[in-house]
Fold:
Amino acid sequence: MANGKEGTDQAATRWKDEEYFYPSKEFIAQANLNNKSVFDRFALDNFPNYYAEFADLITWFKPWEKVFDSSEAPTWKWFTGGTLNVSYNCIDRHLAKNANKTAIHYVPEPMNEKTEHITYQELYVRVNEFAALLRNTAKLKRGDRVTIHMPMVAELPITMLACARLGVIHNVVFGGFSSSACADRIIDSKSRVLITMDAYYRAGKLIDHKSVDDESCQLAADGGQKVDTLLIWQRYPGKNSSPAPMVAGRDIVVQDELKKYYGARIDPEHMDSHDPLFLMYTSGTTGKPKGCQHGTGGYLSYVTAMAKYILDIQPEDVYWCTADIGWITGHSFIVYGPLALGASSIMYEGVPTYPDAGRNWRIAQDLGITIFYTAPTAIRALRKVGPDEPKKYNLKFKLIGTVGEPIEPEVWRWYYKEVGKDQAAVVDTYWQTETGGFVFCTVPGLAPMKPGSAGPGVPGIHPVLFDDEGNTLPPGSNKPAHFCIKNPWPGCFQTIWGNRDRFVNSYFGTYNRDRNSKDWRDWPYITGDTAIEAGDGYVRILGRADDVINVSGHRLGSKEIEAAALTVPEIAEAAVVAIPHEIKGAEPELYVSLKPGVVATPDIEKKVADAIVFQIGKIAKCGRIWVVPDMPKTRSGKIMRRVLLAVSTKADVGNIMTLANPEIVDAIQKMVNK
Ligand code: WTA
Structure:
């Protein structure tokens, strides 16, 4: 994995190009997309009109007039003039024919709790009632932001859809993030309402969550953003599962308050296609996460098309995406894409290997799941705890997908053989929080699969690769390159909330020649990843070219971890490296040096570890924390993370004689190799 701004030269090739595997005839025969003419229609010459096909998958209150408007380049506007409502598209429009179809099968973690089967009709009732509460009790209106810090429970999509019904912009924060991370997002999005749940199950423990959000409110207030209303869903309605006391005037128990709104119906707001639907904060090169703003019409059209054509969700399918809704994968491919298609979607509260290695496969068997979408880190973990476990169950997958990080060919083969029983189509989907939906992967009914490679661009996405000097590489160059996309697409985020300059610079800055250009051809989108494109157009992702690291498919900023370490008063400098890890893909290791005069004490590592958990959450825990006498530095004072990475991985440190302090490398090596 690239770590630090190393460019493409050092990016190691992860694995060799592999052989093709072909989807089964049965799969192809039933696929939503199995006619190759789609690639002619979606040729670059037909940009942007080909995207009208995607817009036709959703219901508009007022039809759109123009497919694409570039007048605010590079904030692209899609389907302008049209109005729609996302909750209407995900619920109301299915009622005529599918009111009694299950929208969400909710599986609680404790084995003795019943799976809930929420029909589209019930979803309609619950979303309307909660929307009434948001409007009348919480006084939220179109354009307001609300932060949601909830676990994987059915009340989470209900909350999001109720926001969408009102035109309220939701900002869902991953439930495992700490109070401090939640507070940062409350402050940046200027939310006066926070929605939480009192407790949830994880690996057999009922975890107190309300206390975390009491702290979030406190920290947000310290940072200048008061939360005047904290809405608390109860994990067990009628019972408080958190020891935290209620704060008078601020806290409202949702299920109690909802009684006022039984039977309420809320007309869905007619949103402009370009209005924001939600914010999703993600890590970048700085210590401060950025709020990716996604729109309404373009986003919904795109995720609906991807759910239909790539995940191949059909009316009779039962679909399970195991992501957490707190990440983009959950937004696009648990909530919005599948529900817009009227699919039956699974949500599972807890850990896939709890209480035993078979849990995941039992859920799949018992609910008759046909499409399964997960991350390499989960596949590695499931394989490790029970390589033969899938055999014990009657699994009937037609398609199995993966997202979040590169999947090792060996792990891919296990997935294909044991989970897919040699007949499910494997779809390795490459995309990002920013892209809203898939950008590189195979169309499963049209193209063979290749272990370890995401496919070529999905229909409509046209890649361009640059070398370190900014020259474009010919297609199929087989060289590591900066991976970019030539054309805009409707799922792309609109801006960084409150920081348009950062949006323009980070995603378009390097290869744009004219900041004033209104021509999309001048604005290739920068993914931030390095990749190799083979002769057949398939891409192998090598890793991030920036300071983002990918731990268990979770995106973390090295700078965020370093900034957290630096909140410990004794710490002078901090540097994170990402080292390969059997299950997580990568794991952060942290090097810290102390301020002059500070003596290393045994508790310093713990202080730093605690600061990271407090500032970010347990997901950012470092495998090791090394307290070193000094950092290896260039003569200009830049910390050489490359050298630290080599020390951590016991690799060759290369030529270090040009460093300002080459002797330190030996000292650090001795410490690490002890
Ligand atoms: C990485 C998740 C290889 C990549 C949807 C990207 C992948 C970052 C793949 C985005 C894949 C995602 N193969 N690498 N199939 N999918 N990535 O924003 O580095 O959480 O830039 O979005 O994950 O992570 P994010």
